[in-house]
Amino acid sequence: MNILIFDSGMGGLSVYQEIKRRLPQATYTYVFDNGAFPYGELPPSTLVDRVVAIIKDRVAARDIDLVVIACNTASTVVLPPLREQLSIPVVGVVPAIKPAASASKVGVIGLLATPATVSRPYTDELISRFAEHCKVLRVGSTRLVEIAEDKLRGIPAPLGELAQILSPFKGAVDQLILGCTHFPLLREEICAVLEEAVSVIDSGAAIANRVVSLLEGSTLKEQGAHQVYCTLADKNCLALHSYLEQQALSAPQVISLTLPDA
């Protein structure tokens, strides 16, 4: 089985790690659209056009069995049109609002995501359905996505800046939802900054469970090389080689595809 994991950057690696832990025998294709990174402020129509074009191209080229959109921002708008274009399962990511609201003892939970995700009607609907009894503090940060990417290139996260971003949650919440797949890459730093007993929740395990259930009974193929593809060759890509090698992934190859301007 060949699983494609897609993100605008490297945040989807947090999802890749969870799925690979459950399905080590699968072949993995990791695709990131760094030519339009970060997705948080991209117009929805452009986002949809780019993601659909990239994924359709890689699904055809790599004989993909299942696609994971490991990006909260993209999942909020891309899933319906993408599923219309593909005949294989497509799994998206949603902020873990339901488990956070259920676990909260103080009735105040935090949502840390990109500016697009915190403001989407989709997020409002999740809060209305699952956290009506809670106060939800929302913080949208594009900078935190950049800090997570820098960490993978060997640049330490600036804890002072991180503390500033997280300050609305300090002493106010007992559950913090990481509503962007980049943010689990900073879990250690986030917990260090918050200091107090805050449960930090992300969607990685839930996504892995969903993938396993959808692929149950699938015919196993011979495992191939785990490949990585990007949309732009730049110095930041080169700086990721060491980390990708640690994750048993190839160096990024650039997809030759005409895409809408970001």
Mean pLDDT: 91
CATH class of the largest domain: Alpha Beta
Strand order of the largest sheet: 4-3-1-2-9-10
CATH topology of the largest domain: Rossmann fold
- Provide the low-confidence segments as ranges: none
Structural class: alpha/beta
- Overall helicity: 40-55%
- Overall CATH architecture of the largest domain: 3-Layer(aba) Sandwich
Biggest sheet features: 6 strands, parallel
Q: What is shown here, in short?
A:
This protein is of the alpha/beta class. 43% of the residues lie in helices and 16% in strands.
Q: What does it look like?
A:
The chain has 2 domains: 2-93 and 205-254, 3-Layer(aba) Sandwich (Rossmann fold), CATH 3.40.50.1860; 97-202, Rossmann fold (3-Layer(aba) Sandwich), CATH 3.40.50. Helix content is 43%, strand content 16%. The chain has helices at residues 13-22, 44-62, 72-85, 97-103, 115-119, 121-130, 143-152, 159-166, 187-194, 204-215, 235-238, 241-246; strands at residues 2-7, 27-32, 66-69, 90-91, 108-113, 135-140, 175-178, 199-201, 227-230, 253-254. The strands form 2 sheets. A 6-stranded parallel sheet has the order 4-3-1-2-9-10, sandwiched between helices. Helix 1 links the parallel strand 1 (2-7) and strand 2 (27-32). Helix 1 (13-22) packs across helix 10 (204-215) and helix 2 (44-62) packs across helix 3. The model has no long low-confidence stretch (mean pLDDT 91).
